[in-house]
């Protein structure tokens, strides 16, 4: 992990070095009359470098939330926005004289942002990051001066980029030197490691994403406040790259917040991303200056206010910050020309100042052990005084995925909020105006379309098949209908072809509505009201729409969506009371139809393992986590349970069950029937992800399997394993040897999460030990030990443990046996009554190592290979 993190840092530093070197060469070699590098080529190169830096910053933020990732993502946004401006000028979309008006607002925002980041880096003694941040910040400032006075700033800008190049080269050289000498020689101050007094990880949230999101708010505020201050004439096309860059980066931060299990922050930056795209849309059509319909911004301000209220549970400062966006949405509603009027731009001026302060506080608290107070526990203290309210614990259990492995939090809050925004935006009437002149398209296409698709993807990753289907289907519908109706494409297309497309969506949504009957009342009303909207679309397509019907059903859908938004955000915050979502209107017997679910117990608790052990001792079968995937287990001393597990899986004859033990001491009753070399090999190789196929023999009957022994292994052999998993080992210690098979129906994929055990096998399972996602999705290595006495081992399957490691262990065991040494672990203190002393079989062991080297013969695969199923978790 440390090596991978080091590679991410190196990649980010190398990207910054490349970008600064590119700008250094261009600034030194260019003159006011001619650019050394064509602007189009310069812009493309900057975007490519920005993408590489962003990649390094995002990967680094997933492991350690610290200053370096913030710097990388901020520089990436700077070069992405300026690169797009250069491309527009190079392609004559903008005039060369427009370069100043286009670049100055963005450069001013990044000058301040990088200055704040570098100041924090100086405080925490991050010399490299301080010099890089300061150098690029000064370069931006000098570039602004150069754009204002043609003969000033270009050489100074190049000098600042030269400083950054030297710092990056110094760090790179020091890093290479450290890697070559394995850390024995390091250049002074050339490391970016955490030092004393700095936080090594964040207990909650993703502070990197928070800082970068604040930088993007700073950027859009700077673009909108510059016309008010007279820095640029007005908002126009040249500002679109900055605004949409901010929007794209905030969508990226939204995803990072979902990975950090922070639903509230993800929702907030999803909202602000929508504002950025709307601002960019207005700048793109600045020639007609689209006006904003009044109902929609008011709805947006209500959503922002509710979100700000619930965000106070994180800290009061964040909730107060979000209230500025409530005022911003109200100003959009109050001034119909919105982003082009002074009142709204004045609110953005306030957001600029507050965002800069928030960036300083957030970045400082991210890396310093002495934090600036933000009112973290105020909300909790107030709620604790109210006896009727009980806060829900904000931990990972809150976002446990329903099915499968997921690294993301629940996205239903944002998904329903987007439905509210899209629905109320659709209520605006256009009349005889140009559809593009009304500010509806960004809300419908981005909120109802793009963000709903994002929420659908997150829901799919969490195993929420129904929710993901709904969000993706509705997102597609909002996108298609928004572009058709409000993109100027609808005028002459009414008729049969449009109706057919709408009918297709109605059929799909009809299936969704029927499926919602089995979920709850709220989801049913949600799907049904959207079906009414689709009917209004169909009636409009055939020119048969009754007056007011479309507005009425859209408002109904918007209100249902608002109820879902409020219920999910409230229920995820408070454990009691809960806003009801209703019960399923239709219930089925059996799995998923209200049947009692077997105990699902946390594996990290010893009491849970004991409870599962008691279930197995009484003849139950249970799902259990391992060092690979989840398995279905039964106690070997309960033959009825072994038969039950076999029947539950409906095993094919060529897919036998295997046996697991916690240590080879559990084979003590049968030790005299097993080879000393085999036992020694077991002791050396276990516990691990190695399964050994050994000859079947009378020793199986000693373990209490009776007639159920026929279900384990084949008539010739049996697979046995000692897993490298503390939970499994503890359970086997309590129960004794267990019969194991995969926790999924025959022929299906492996089970990688505890919720999948019950979903796949239903109420036939008597209990499940829950330990979240599987640590490894790679199966165990299956070694053929049926001919181990001849010095040969083979492989049925190479899994988590490589061949070379297995051969190394086997050779060491063979060498000990050649020298007459036995593993001390086999010198037991007790002798089993009635057993005879087994004579040493050392002389029967050949000198072949199984590697096929020297005089030895190559290791061979046993003829029993067909009897071992390599798809089972042996």
UniProtKB/TrEMBL annotation:
Entry's localization field:
Cytoplasm; Membrane
Q: Which reaction does it catalyse?
A: L-threonine + hydrogencarbonate + ATP = L-threonylcarbamoyladenylate + diphosphate + H2O
Q: In which residue ranges is the amino acid composition biased (Low complexity)?
A: 856-867
- Membrane topology of the entry: Multi-pass membrane protein
Cellular component, GO annotation = cytoplasm; membrane
Q: Which UniProt keywords apply?
A: Cytoplasm, Membrane, Transferase, Transmembrane, Transmembrane helix
E.C. number, please? 2.7.7.87
Q: Which residues form a coiled coil?
A: none
Positions of transmembrane segments: 12-30, 36-55, 67-89, 101-123, 128-150, 156-173, 208-230, 242-261, 268-288, 294-312, 319-335, 347-367, 436-460, 466-484, 496-517, 523-542, 549-570
Pfam families recorded for this chain? Gpr1_Fun34_YaaH, Sua5_yciO_yrdC
- InterPro entries this protein is in? DHBP_synth_RibB-like_a/b_dom (IPR017945), Gpr1/Fun34/SatP-like (IPR000791), Sua5-like_dom (IPR006070), TC-AMP_synthase_SUA5 (IPR050156)
| Entry annotated with the keyword Methyltransferase | no
YrdC-like domain sequence ranges: 606-801
Q: Where is this region: Disordered?
A: 818-874
**Entry GO MF terms:** double-stranded RNA binding; L-threonylcarbamoyladenylate synthase
Q: Which domain of life is it from?
A: Eukaryota
* PANTHER family for the chain: SUA5, THREONYLCARBAMOYL-AMP SYNTHASE
Q: What does the sequence similarity comment in the record state about its family? A: Belongs to the acetate uptake transporter (AceTr) (TC 2.A.96) family.
Name assigned to this protein? Threonylcarbamoyl-AMP synthase
Q: State the species of origin.
A: Oryzias latipes (Japanese rice fish)
Organism ancestry: Eukaryota, Metazoa, Chordata, Craniata, Vertebrata
């Amino acid at each position: 992990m440390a090596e991978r993190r080091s590679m991410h840092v190196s990649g980010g530093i190398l990207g910054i070095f490349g970008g600064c070197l590119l700008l250094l060469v261009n600034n030194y070699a260019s003159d006011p009359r001619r650019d050394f590098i064509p602007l189009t080529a310069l812009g493309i190169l900057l975007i490519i470098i920005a993408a590489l830096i962003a990649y390094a910053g995002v990967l680094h933020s997933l492991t350690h939330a610290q200053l370096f990732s913030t710097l990388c993502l901020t520089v990436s946004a700077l070069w992405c926005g300026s690169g797009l401006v250069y491309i527009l000028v190079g392609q004559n979309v903008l005039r060369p004289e427009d370069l100043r008006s286009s670049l100055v607002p963005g450069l001013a925002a990044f000058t301040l942002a990088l200055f704040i980041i570098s100041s924090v880096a100086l405080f925490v003694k991050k010399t490299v990051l301080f010099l890089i941040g300061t150098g690029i910040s000064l370069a931006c400032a000098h570039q602004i001066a150069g754009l204002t006075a043609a003969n000033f700033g270009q050489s100074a800008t190049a000098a600042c980029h030269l400083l950054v190049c030297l710092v990056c080269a110094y760090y790179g050289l020091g890093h290479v030197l450290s890697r070559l000498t394995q850390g024995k020689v390091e250049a002074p101050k050339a490391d970016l490691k955490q030092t004393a007094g700095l936080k090594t990880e964040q207990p909650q949230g993703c502070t990197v994403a928070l800082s970068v999101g604040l930088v993007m708010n700073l950027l859009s505020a700077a673009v909108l406040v510059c016309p008010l201050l007279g820095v640029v004439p007005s908002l126009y096309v040249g500002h679109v790259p900055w605004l949409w860059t901010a929007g794209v980066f905030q969508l990226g931060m939204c995803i990072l917040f979902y990975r950090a299990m922070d639903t509230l922050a993800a929702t907030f930056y999803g909202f602000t991303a929508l504002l950025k795209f709307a601002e960019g849309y207005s700048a793109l059509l600045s020639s007609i200056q689209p006006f904003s319909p009044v109902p929609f911004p008011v709805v947006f301000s209500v959503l922002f206010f509710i979100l700000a209220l619930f965000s106070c549970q994180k800290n009061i400062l964040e909730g107060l910050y979000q209230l500025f966006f409530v005022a911003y949405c109200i100003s959009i509603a109050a001034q119909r020309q919105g982003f082009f009027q002074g009142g709204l731009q004045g609110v953005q001026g306030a957001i600029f100042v507050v965002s800069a302060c928030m960036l300083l506080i957030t970045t400082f608290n991210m890396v310093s052990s002495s934090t600036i107070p933000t009112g973290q526990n105020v909300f909790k203290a107030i709620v604790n005084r109210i006896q009727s309210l009980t806060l829900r614990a904000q931990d990972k259990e809150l976002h446990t995925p329903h099915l499968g492995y997921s690294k993301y939090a629940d996205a239903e809050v944002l998904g329903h909020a987007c439905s509210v925004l899209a629905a109320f935006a659709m209520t605006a009437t256009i009349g005889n105006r140009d559809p593009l002149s009304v500010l509806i398209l960004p809300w419908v296409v981005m909120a109802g379309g793009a963000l709903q698709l994002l929420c659908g993807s997150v829901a799919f990753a969490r195993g929420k098949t129904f929710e993901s289907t709904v969000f993706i289907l509705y997102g597609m519908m909002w996108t298609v209908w928004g572009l058709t109706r409000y993109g100027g494409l609808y005028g002459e297309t009414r008729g049969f072809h449009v109706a057919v497309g709408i009918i297709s969506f109605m059929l799909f949504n009809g299936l969704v509505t029927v499926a919602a009957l089995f979920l709850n009342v709220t989801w049913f009303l949600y799907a049904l009201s959207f079906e009414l909207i689709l009917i209004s679309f169909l009636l409009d397509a055939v020119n048969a729409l009754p007056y007011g019907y479309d507005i009425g059903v859209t408002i109904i859908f918007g209100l249902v969506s608002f109820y879902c938004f409020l219920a999910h955000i409230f229920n995820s915050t408070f454990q009691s009371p809960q806003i009801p979502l209703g019960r399923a209107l239709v219930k089925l017997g059996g799995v998923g139809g209200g049947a009692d679910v077997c105990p699902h117990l946390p594996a990290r608790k010893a009491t849970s393992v004991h409870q599962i052990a008691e279930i197995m001792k009484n003849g139950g079968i249970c799902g259990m986590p391992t060092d690979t995937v989840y398995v279905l287990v039964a106690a070997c001393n309960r033959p009825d349970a072994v038969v039950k597990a076999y029947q539950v899986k409906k095993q094919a004859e060529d897919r036998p069950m295997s046996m697991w033990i916690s240590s080879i001491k559990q084979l003590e009753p049968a030790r005299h029937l097993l080879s000393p070399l085999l036992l020694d090999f077991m002791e050396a190789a276990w516990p691990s992800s190695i399964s050994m196929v050994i000859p079947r023999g009378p020793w199986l009957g000693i373990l209490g399997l009776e007639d159920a022994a026929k279900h384990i292994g084949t008539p010739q052999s049996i697979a046995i394993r000692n897993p490298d998993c503390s939970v499994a080992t503890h359970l086997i210690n309590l129960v004794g040897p267990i019969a194991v098979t995969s926790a999924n129906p025959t022929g299906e994929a492996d089970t990688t999460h505890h919720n999948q055990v019950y979903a796949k096998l239903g109420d036939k399972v008597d209990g499940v030990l829950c330990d979240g996602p599987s640590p490894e999705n790679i199966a165990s290595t299956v070694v053929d030990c049926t001919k181990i006495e001849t010095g040969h081992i083979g492989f049925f399957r190479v899994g988590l443990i490589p061949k070379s490691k297995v051969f190394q262990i086997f050779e060491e065991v063979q060498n000990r046996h050649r020298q007459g040494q036995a593993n001390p672990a086999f010198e037991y203190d007790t002798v089993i009554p009635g057993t005879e002393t087994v004579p040493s079989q050392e002389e029967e062991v050949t000198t072949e190592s199984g590697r096929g080297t020297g005089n030895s013969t190559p290791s061979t695969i046993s003829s029993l290979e067909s009897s071992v199923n390599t798809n089972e978790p042996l």
